[in-house]
Design goal:
Order of helices and strands: HHH
Oligomer: single chain
Number of helices: 3
Distance between the termini: 45 Å
Structural class: mainly alpha
Number of strands: 0
Number of domains: 1
Strand content: under 5%
Shape: globular
Radius of gyration: 17 Å
Length: 88
């Protein structure tokens, strides 16, 4: 299907594989140069044990496969956030 005809259809965009939460935390720590204060608790109501973006429709319909790593994405987000909110 031509993507231009898919008005109003959303696609999940991610890296199509689960990433552990602690990996995200470690990447953020490394990028910011600070150690996170982590308080591990049991799963809370509504928490899920694993989730990841299903990009099958995106690949099929748009012939696009995201190539941004978690490390690149977190760095870009932190840079944007700090710029947007004028944080040094």
């Amino acid at each position: 299907m031509d993507v231009s005809t898919r008005n109003g259809i959303d696609s999940h965009i991610g890296n199509n594989q689960p990433i552990e939460l602690m990996h995200y935390i470690r990447v953020i720590e490394e990028y910011l140069g600070v150690k996170a204060k982590v308080n591990m608790l049991p799963l809370q109501p509504g928490d899920v044990e694993a989730t990841f973006a299903d990009i099958d429709e995106l690949v099929r319909d748009a012939d696009f496969r995201p190539a941004t790593s978690v490390e690149q994405g977190i760095a870009a987000f932190i840079d944007w956030y700090k710029s947007y909110y004028a944080i040094k």
